[in-house]
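User: Earlier you gave me the apo prediction for this protein. Now I'd like the version with flavin-adenine dinucleotide bound, so I can compare the two side by side. Same sequence as before, with the ligand SMILES added.
Assistant: Got it. Here's the input I'm using:
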Amino acid sequence: MSRDSNTTRHHVLWLRQDLRVADNTALHAACRDPEAAVTALYAVTPAQWQAHDVAGVRIDLELRQLRLLQADLAALAIPLVIIEAADYQALVPVLADWLRRHGVAELHGNRQYEVNEQSRDAALEAALGSDVRCCWHHDQCIIAPGRVLTADHRPYTVFTPFKRNWLAQLMTAPPPMLPIPARRRQQCATSTPVPAAVAGLASHVAPALAGQLWPAGEDAAHDRLHAFISDAGAHYDSQRDLPACNGTSTLSPYLAAGMLSPRQCLHAAWQQQAHGAGNGMATWISELCWRDFYKHILVHFPHVCRHQAFKRETDAIAWRHDEALFQAWCQGRTGFPIVDAAMRQLLATGWMHNRLRMITAMFLSKDLFIDWRWGERHFMRHLVDGDFAANNGGWQWSASTGNDAAPYFRIFNPLLQSRKFDPEGSFIRRFVPELAGLDGPDIHAPHAHGPSLLAADYPLPVIDHGRARDHAVAQFKALATATARTT
Ligand SMILES: Cc1cc2nc3c(=O)[nH]c(=O)nc-3n(C[C@H](O)[C@H](O)[C@H](O)COP(=O)(O)OP(=O)(O)OC[C@H]3O[C@@H](n4cnc5c(N)ncnc54)[C@H](O)[C@@H]3O)c2cc1C
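And here is the structure of the complex with flavin-adenine dinucleotide:
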């Protein structure tokens, strides 16, 4: 401690999903007073993370990032202190006590929009009373929730008009990027070590592989952003659906942990567009808009945080609770090569290509007719980019229970999807080694050509797609008829 905390104004930045020093709204606000000492806090809450199904691979990335961030913050004379509590309920008094003991005048944090996180912040604010001024900032979205509304001030539930409004606002008021704050003159606390791991939250991806696939650090995130934009960006619209190509940015883990801000992505894309980069960047900006859209949905329709369908009537669907079929899907042993390759990509790397997330989610919810919430949880438990809003939105889109979801009768045929998006079968060969010896189109449906093509240990299809499709359509149709009768 370089000065008595009683004589220095002390501000705290509570880091959550914003693990960076550049373009960080709460950090910037905490540092506005040049005379104030600033301390960064990060809360480790293992039981809460387990209850929220946070993947170990994601925690591993965050811890690696925190170690680098601690050094970046130290260069600004901002210590990083780690606070531990089992869950949010236990955290509130621990945090309140720390803030009081350290004479903190202002607490700054970037808002997390999920209901438990909102309740935690409200409880802390109530516990602190007038002792500490709490300042919650909007930082996670390019345009803050509540600012993209219809002409009669209602939230959008359909993406296309949301995007039109979102783009129009960006044209008139481009979001600024915030600089890294100046080095502090005072310090009121001392850094504490970042834990190497969190009990009960081990990564399912081998540490060396995780470090190679998902290197930590703001520099690593920016290198990936600029490499994507200059190499693949121009072809994004034509290659983004092909899982065998490196056609997407793979920036989702960095955005989920806040190692990169969505505004930084937007500005980089605009810069590339200014150099005439074809349609690729416009399509990519649309994906950033989807990210905002699902976060806005979460804020305006918080019931989606409580395991409820966006379209509440679809909670009456009698989903199949078949553990054996579910496990076949989780392990990548359904006998549908594209589904199995995708599910094994998730297990091997902690990430899955977007086209495959749609195929596997629709396969679980429509072909296997298993409750989409089971799949949502499995994804969260394994995704390095697990993000409640995007995951819930993607699952509800696939299961036709969400806002602006896929119409229930438009069900992906896994065989046609496989032929269209992995035409050479090279993605399947990479993740399903049992099928690596198959040539050409046989790889998409090896069982269709008789037992000779099947590797001994590759399963037969667990379901007949045609019959499964008819069953799903009939169930949704019956629900629609019943709903129409009661309204
Ligand atoms: C069932 C399902 C579950 C999903 N779960 C998650 C999740 O937990 N976390 C997550 O970040 N994304 C999720 N997505 C969205 C999407 O699949 C990933 O964001 C994308 O695959 C990440 O790869 P990328 O970074 O290369 O994306 P790019 O194609 O390069 O897109 C750039 C960024 O835009 C955002 N984005 C892209 N597509 C979407 C989308 N459909 N919805 C919301 N944001 C999007 C992501 O932040 C992404 O990093 C899910 C989609 C589905 C269908």
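For your comparison, keep in mind: The chain is about 50% helix and 5% strand.
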